[in-house]
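Q: What does the predicted 3D structure of ATPase look like?
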Amino acid sequence: MNAIVVEHISKNYGAIQALKEISFHVKKGELFGLIGPDGAGKTSLFRILTTLMLADQGTATVNGLDVVKDYKKIRQMVGYMPGRFSLYQDLTVEENLQFFATIFNTTIEKNYHLIKDIYVQLEPFRKRPAGKLSGGMKQKLALCCALVHEPSILFLDEPTTGVDPVSRKEFWEMLKRLRDNGIAIMVSTPYMDEADLCERVALIQAGQILQINSPANIVADFEKDIYGVKGEHMHALLQTARSYPGTFSCFAFGDQLHLVLKDGETNSLGVQQYLSERINGDFTLQKIEPGIEDCFMYLMEK
Ligand SMILES: Nc1ncnc2c1ncn2[C@@H]1O[C@H](COP(=O)(O)OP(=O)(O)OP(=O)(O)O)[C@@H](O)[C@H]1O
């Protein structure tokens, strides 16, 4: 059975169409990523699936239960970590956790095994108000609070936004351990590089899903050539490559530019010559293997 099934869900806020006929499923015990920029509709989808908001159209089930009719049962079995405001800033670490355990009619001790790995890192700060924790620590505490009633599905809305790269890595390692314990996880992120850490990902933009697959399959199915461009004058290269009439898109990625040509530009000779005529100094242009971020950038531009 699937952990989550979404069928033709739409949601409008007045004239704004936040979700347009979204359909997908998440398997039991899967780590599923929802990748998309600000305003893509991620939070709206989370709120519908966690029974906090009604969709205008379509149906959704969580653990086989309907999000409208069975909302009370669903609330007992899911853990939800909203992007912001999930902690009580004036309560201490310990009091926050205690609070979430109590509202779910359970105790920290009963489910300590689930949060132990994460909570040991918070223990030195257990008397500190949540508002005085670092960003990474806040997110760890919020995850503990979402886990303390032993949910079978976790919904995490941008848990790594604003968190430093080391803490982000640690956070994803925790998610993998939870997934290994059989918890299905749906996690959203605006960081495209985090897509590779999920079993399957959906790319969402302007309320629509552009692609759903495993990261490896998304890359394997990518039909365009990507060229890596490097040189002494990167800014001039970027501007000039973008001005070439056959360029579809060109972005700075790490220490080089990633260039995609328009359909019909079958090789790189034209752009190579165009750059040579306009760029002072050396540069190289060569075909490179696409990464998941290239695929997403292309789909979003398209
Ligand atoms: N209560 C609301 N009233 C009006 N518009 C809203 C409301 N909530 C969201 N929106 C709009 O709906 C669209 C989708 O928002 P949503 O918060 O679901 O996206 P998101 O991907 O989670 O982005 P973000 O990370 O910025 O929250 C955006 O255009 C947003 O401005």
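A (community wiki): The structure tokens above were generated from the sequence. Residues 13, 16, 18, 36, 38-44 surround adenosine-5'-triphosphate (CB under 6 Å). The first strand starts at residue 2 and ends at 13.
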